[in-house]
């Protein structure tokens, strides 16, 4: 049985994303990043409430499928035994006249097998469909977060920076605020990755696992670029501090 340290649970992820949304709203109440954080909260809440991450709901679907499989097997067995009994009692005398009966029996067995396979794979197919739909939204969320930090270039804070008429609008952020902004974007990308991993906790589906791995790679790459910006920002801040004149001697 998995312990609390061996399994990623939805509750801590949801609690963390709520705290992050409050931190972003407190520091940047009028910026679009606050709205993005709210959308991320809603997405994590939907994932936490989804059957994809609920073992109990998945077991319920599997139980229903197993009951239906038992019904199909019982019906097919009853019909097969009845058909054999009637054929033995009132069957044709000539051998070739048995061919239509055998063909019908084979068709019934094939259709029963198809129904059993469909019911057996139904829980996994439903889980895959729901998981892929959520993962697609997470991938879109990661790109939206990346768009919000895309124009937040620390180079624009340098005194030597010369904007053109095509340059983005001024950031209206101090160096300290820009560092917080970039850090929040990195945290949100990390939470997108953790939310994607929640979709794979109860799944062994290769397609779902591969999609989760793709999202994790995507968010790590985006976050790495953000931390490169933070390193440039810190270097720029040191340059600005050196350029400021110190106090004159008395």
UniProtKB/TrEMBL annotation:
- Transmembrane residue ranges: 63-81, 101-119
Entry annotated with the keyword Transmembrane helix: yes
Keywords of the record, alphabetical order, are: Membrane, Transmembrane, Transmembrane helix
- Protein's UniProt name: Uncharacterized protein
What is the scientific name of the source organism? Nocardioides thalensis
